[in-house]
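Query structure, 108 tokens:
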């Protein structure tokens, strides 16, 4: 599960970091006190960030359980949250004429 952090200090990095924005951590180097963020070449100090909470992830369009991007209807594609009242499966749906039916049609 990816780790997301929220920037709380952008001193001396105003051109790269934005206060309040979420960033995905690529490598967390706690020994040196650095986060290597996705999309950046240089590491940033851990003291500039706080770990993102469930409310921050939800506001950014990510699942609060697994951090996956939410789908069109605001639901987790990984199905880590139970779906209330799921629609029963009724077999494959027929959409009308199939591609093969159109290919076999006579040419006028």
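Result returned for the query:
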């Amino acid at each position: 599960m990816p780790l997301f952090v929220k920037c709380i200090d952008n001193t001396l990095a105003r051109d790269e970091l934005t206060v309040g924005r979420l960033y995905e951590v690529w490598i967390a180097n706690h020994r040196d006190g650095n986060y290597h963020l996705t999309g950046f070449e240089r590491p940033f100090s851990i003291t500039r960030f706080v770990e993102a909470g469930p409310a921050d992830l939800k506001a950014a369009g990510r699942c609060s359980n697994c951090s996956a991007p939410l789908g069109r209807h605001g639901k987790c594609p990984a199905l880590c949250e139970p779906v209330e009242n799921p629609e029963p499966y009724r077999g494959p749906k027929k959409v009308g004429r199939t591609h093969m039916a159109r290919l076999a049609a006579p040419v006028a």
